[in-house]
């Protein structure tokens, strides 16, 4: 089972999805361009990958998602204008969102056949080496990024690693779920994986969060294009096959997880990240206290008027 540990240098970003859960915001705008405070989700994901030591960035896109690539352009026209105006702070902001030449590549996923299919589309770009996957609408608020934490753990034991977190038992049907055989510190040993089981059939309530480190042998199973839950080609099913041949771990990461792919999670992320930004936090906190007071006052008024009616 044990293999030599090879470094993780490449990351795949499956960003061809339609983002239907966030319509109408995502009717024209790719959901990964939605912004949490000051950075689009795709930039947050790329910065997390850079922090984890990733050197090659592979975006799995479809038509209409070109903006995600443009965002990492070094924007020469804009830079000229900013330089002429002496806007040094803004120049630094733009530079921070650029990637070294040749480090970003795109592959096309022509049909929305599932996450497993999206990852399989990147097989030539990944080649025969371990790689990371980041789902940009899953964000983690922590001083050390989720992928950097996973890479550190991976470097000590190798194999395959998925980010893991507990979810409410009734939510198992929204996630890939782990069947756990043991735990050592933050690493869970896994004996099975199931995509979106109903609570009655779920082996646990430990879910896969949108970060993975996988060995290239995963492509052997993805190439089978087996349909799984929801009629889609599921990454979880391919991982369940790979589990028979290779070591697999769930990694209990540190930090608050925020699913920005739905309205509630997206709004929570705005609040959490704003309160984490020193230049904004005091004003936002004060504003929120005012709004909360107003909200509670309005609530008690409503309760009183309801009493009267009753
Ligand atoms: C995907 C994966 C699922 C994982 C989830 C994390 O599901 O298929 O295993 O738990 O991401 O966000 P999706 O959210 O694309 O339905």
Structural summary, described in words:
The chain is α/β, with parallel strands linked by helices and 310 residues long. Helix content is 36%, strand content 23%. It has eleven helices and 13 strands. The chain has a nine-stranded mixed β-sheet with strand order 5-4-1-6-11-8-12-10-9. Strands 2-3 form a two-stranded antiparallel ribbon. It is globular. Bound molecules: 1-O-phosphono-alpha-D-glucopyranose. 1-O-phosphono-alpha-D-glucopyranose binds next to β11 and α9.
Percentage of residues assigned to helices: 25-40%
Spatial strand arrangement across the major sheet: 5-4-1-6-11-8-12-10-9
The largest sheet is: 9 strands, mixed
The distinct bound ligands, ions and cofactors come out as: 1-O-phosphono-alpha-D-glucopyranose
Number of strand elements: 13
Number of distinct helices: 11
Low-confidence stretches: none
Strand-pairing-aware structural class: alpha/beta
User: Globular, elongated, flat, extended or rod-shaped: what is the shape?
Assistant: globular
End-to-end distance, in Å? Answer: 69 Å
Average pLDDT number? 92
Q: What pattern of helices and strands is seen along the backbone?
A: EEEHEHHHEHHEEHEEEEHHEEHH
What amount of the residues lies in strands?
Answer: 15-25%
Radius of gyration: 21 Å
In short:
With 310 residues, the protein is α/β, with parallel strands linked by helices. 36% of the residues lie in helices and 23% in strands. It contains 11 helices and 13 strands.
């Amino acid at each position: 089972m044990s293999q030599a540990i090879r470094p993780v240098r490449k990351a795949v970003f499956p960003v061809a999805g339609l983002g239907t859960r966030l319509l109408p915001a995502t009717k024209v705008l790719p959901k990964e361009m939605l912004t949490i405070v000051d950075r689009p989700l795709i930039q947050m994901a790329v910065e997390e990958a850079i922090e984890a030591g990733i050197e090659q960035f592979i975006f799995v896109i479809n038509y209409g998602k070109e903006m995600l690539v443009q965002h990492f352009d070094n924007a020469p026209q804009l830079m000229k204008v900013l330089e002429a105006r002496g806007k040094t702070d803004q120049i630094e902001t733009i530079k921070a969102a650029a990637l070294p030449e040749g480090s970003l590549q795109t592959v096309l996923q022509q049909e929305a056949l599932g996450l497993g299919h999206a990852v399989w589309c990147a097989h030539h770009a990944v080649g025969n080496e371990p790689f990371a996957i980041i789902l940009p609408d899953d964000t983690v608020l922590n001083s050390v990024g989720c992928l950097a934490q996973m890479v550190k753990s991976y470097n000590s034991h190798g194999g395959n690693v998925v980010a893991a977190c507990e979810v409410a038992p009734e939510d198992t049907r929204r996630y890939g779920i782990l069947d756990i055989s043991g735990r050592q510190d933050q690493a869970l040993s896994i004996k099975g994986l199931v995509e979106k089981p109903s609570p009655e059939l779920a082996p646990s309530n430990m879910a896969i969060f949108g970060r993975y480190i996988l060995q290239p042998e995963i492509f052997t199973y993805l190439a089978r294009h087996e349909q799984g839950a929801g009629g889609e080609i599921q990454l979880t099913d391919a991982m369940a096959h790979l589990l028979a041949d290779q070591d697999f771990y769930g990694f209990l990461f540190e930090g608050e997880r925020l699913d920005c792919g739905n309205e509630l999670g997206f709004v929570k992320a705005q609040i959490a990240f704003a309160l984490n930004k020193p230049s904004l936090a005091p004003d936002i906190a004060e504003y929120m206290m005012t709004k909360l007071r107003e909200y509670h006052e309005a609530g008690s008024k409503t309760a009183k008027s309801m009493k009267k009616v009753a």
